[in-house]
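JOB MANIFEST
job_type = single_chain_structure
chain_count = 1
residues = 163
[input]
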Amino acid sequence: MLVTAVLFWQVVLAVHIAAVIITFGVIFAYPVIYLFAAKLDPRAMPWYYRMRVLLSRRLISPGLVLVLVAGIYLASKLHQWRFNYARWGLAVIVIIGGLEGAVLARNEKKLAALAEQDIAVAGPGSVTWSGEYQALSRRVVTVDALILVLVLITVYVMTIHGI
């Protein structure tokens, strides 16, 4: 069957899906990058956390806004607000945005500074992370895991249109 016309909501749906992939794709790479950076070159950890801050500001935050706006448009245009999956998606975007801004962004900056301090203390020798760095790093990893689980659950919920 040849489709001769594309409706605007279909374009918005494609934008919404692309924004989800772009926004959250990088977040799924964080655990792998973290593990390799920490093992291969601990002195790269300040760069890793600074890059996360940059990606948060320039990619993730604007992407969250685009996912939110497109999702609201789609739920409104297609009269989906009565279904739990639409409200779930809205709630998850707000939660992830809050975690990203209130927890991750602040702690990533602090982790970069703590990593630099620990590297300076180590001099040319091997780096030993301070207790403060380790505790804050665990907190960030925990929030990362929560976000990843929320994204995966949301993909499932959106796919089956149910909750």
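[summary]
The mean pLDDT is 94.
The chain has one domain: 42-160.
exit_status = 0
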